[in-house]
Design brief:
Helices cover 69% and strands 4% of the residues. The protein has 218 residues and is mainly α. It has a two-stranded antiparallel sheet. Strand 1 and strand 2 form a beta hairpin. Helix 1 packs across helix 3.
Length: 218
């Protein structure tokens, strides 16, 4: 699916930002590729101003880099940068689990279990987009139950930096162990075992930190 298509006229800066971020995460704008605000504006059906603002925001978030008077390009996958982002996201999810487990009811457990079923089916079918959606839905149950808006904002801020690596992981059903780890997490949540839920959460996100070592540093 081509995400670089004309967007609506409302909240143009935010829409441009969301569209370009998704294009980077999905690889439609691949690592190292040079981007020009004029070309992007034409593809999105926008003026250059909201595109420039979106690129500036993406630069702050580490998804694009600019050399003044020279170029703006999508950042390459650098293992150290991905590891740093993954470690921050891991700590936030650990906090979410620690806070949310005592508050979860049957509906939350059911939502997590249904999300994991969708996730497992998507991974087996190599449907990366569906796997990512289901994975987000599962973990969002704990994030939402925690009620910590700063935690949620931090996860939202750093997840795009690791999403390109997640797409690689979820696209390989032979090596992806996340569904089994999710099942253990759900069991711990259902049992009200906060410490086990935190331990499993750590294991889930450590796998991404380790996978970051496969990122290209060139």
């Amino acid at each position: 699916m081509d995400v670089l298509r004309p967007v609506g006229r409302t909240l143009l800066r935010d829409r441009a930002y969301e569209t370009l971020r998704e294009a980077i995460v999905r690889g439609e704008l691949p690592p190292g590729s040079v981007v020009k605000d004029s070309e992007l504006a034409e593809r999105l059906g926008l003026s250059r101003a909201p595109v420039r603002e979106a690129l500036a925001r993406l630069g702050d978030e580490g998804l694009v880099e600019t050399k003044p008077q020279s170029y703006t390009r999508v950042t390459r996958l650098v293992s150290r940068v991905v590891r740093d982002a993954a470690s921050v996201v891991r700590v936030m999810h650990e906090l979410a689990a620690r806070t949310a487990v005592p508050l979860l009811g049957p509906e939350g457990i059911r939502a997590m279990r249904e999300a994991n079923e969708r996730f497992d089916a998507a991974v087996r079918a190599s449907d990366v987009d569906a796997a990512l959606r289901a994975d987000d839905e599962l973990h969002d149950v704990l994030v939402g139950a925690s009620g910590n808006h700063a935690l949620a904002a931090t996860i939202e801020r750093y997840t795009p930096l690791i999403r390109r690596v997640e797409r690689h992981l979820f696209g390989d059903p032979g090596t992806c162990r996340s569904a089994a780890l999710h099942a253990r997490l759900i069991e711990a949540c259902e049992a009200g075992d906060t410490e086990e839920a935190v331990r499993v959460t750590t294991e889930i996100w450590r796998a991404l930190e380790e996978l970051a070592d496969e990122a290209t540093d060139s």
